[in-house]
Amino acid sequence: MFLRVIDRSLPVTSNFQHVEARFDVQSFDLFGDMPSIVDADPVFLIFDLKVNTDAKRRAVEGVIRRFPDTPAVAIIDVKSKLERVFWNANGVSALIHKTEKPDLIVKNIERVLEEHIRTTALSPGGIERAVKVCDTALAGMAESVAKRSFVKDQSVGAAALHVSTLIDLGREKEWLAQVQQHHSQTFQHSLLVASVISAFAKHLALPRSDQAFLTKAALLHDIGKMFVPLEVLDNPGKLSPENHELVKKHPSNGADFLKRHGCLPRATIETTRSHHELLDGSGYPDGLSGSQISPLVRVMTISDVYSALIERRAYKEAYSPRQALSIMWEMKGKLDPILLKEFSKSVCHAKMGRVASRPERVG
Ligand SMILES: [Fe+2]
Ligand SMILES: [Fe+2]
Hints:
about 375 residues, alpha/beta, Rossmann fold, Hypothetical protein af1432, 5-stranded parallel β-sheet, 5 strands, binds fe (ii) ion
C-alpha cells in the first residue's frame, strides 16, 4: 500500500496523477486520520508536502515512527536547504524534485521500492516477509474473484518483485521450502510457477520488463481455478466428464475475469487464457497451434508443465527434476524445443528441486 502524506491546506504536486496511475495510492492529511493498514501490506510512504512549521515537523516524525523500516520518499522543493536537511535527518530514501518529469518521479519510487525489497530479501526474516506479501496478494486475488471486484495490481506486483528478488539472490531453496509449508495448494502452485519462470526468464536474459511481467503473470495464470469448487480441484479420483470440462474452463474463465476486473496488459490476459495451449494444437481452450502461440505464452506453458510435474498430486508422486524434464522431452511437438533446451539448462542451474504439494487437477 502506498501512503501519500499531504497538507490539505497547500497545493500538492501537479505531476502526481502519473504516480497514481502506476501505483495504488491512498492520500491522507498529515493532521488527519491515518488510513487503516493491513499488517502484511507492503507500505511505502510518499511525503508530498512542505514542512515549514514545527508542528508539521513533529507530525511528520510521528508518521515515520509509526512505520519503522518503511521505505519513504519526499517530493519537495529541493532548492530549500532547510527542507533537504530535515528529510535527510529523518532517513527518507530519496528526495524528488516536485517539478521533476512524471516518469522520473515514478522511476525514483520504483528504484527505492526495489532496493527496499532487496534489502528485506537479504535480511534473516526476508523469506517470511515474502511469504506474507505473497499471501496477501493471493488472498486479495481470491477476494476479487469472490466479490467480482478489481484485482489489486500493485499487491500482485509487489509479490512478484519479492519472488524474483529471492531467486536473484540464490535463495530459491529456502524460499521453496517455506512455500511448501503453506496450507493452500493454489498458493504453492502459483508461487512455484512464479519462481520457476523468474529463474527461466533470467536464464534467457529477457529484458527486465519481460522478467517482471512473466513473474507477475505466473501469479495470476491460474486465477480461473478460483471459480472451480475445491472438492473438484482436490478430488483424488477420476473426474466425471462434466467436472473435467469445468476444470478445463479455468484458463478462459480466468482471462475473462482479468479482462473485466483488472488494469492489466493484454499479454497477461493472453498468458492466462493460453497457458494450456500446445504447439501441435492439442491444447485448450482455443486449440491454438504453432505461430498462434506467442513466445511469452510458450515460456509460461513450459514453466507451468514443469511445476505441475514436480509437485505431488493426489493421483501421482512428485517427479524429480530429471524425470520431469524427460517427460517434457517426450511431449514431442507440444512444447517449443529451443525453449525446452534452454529450460533444461535453467533448471539444472537454479536447482528447482522436488516439491511436495497438495492435490491439484491440472497445471
Ligand atoms: Fe492452469
Ligand atoms: Fe498452473
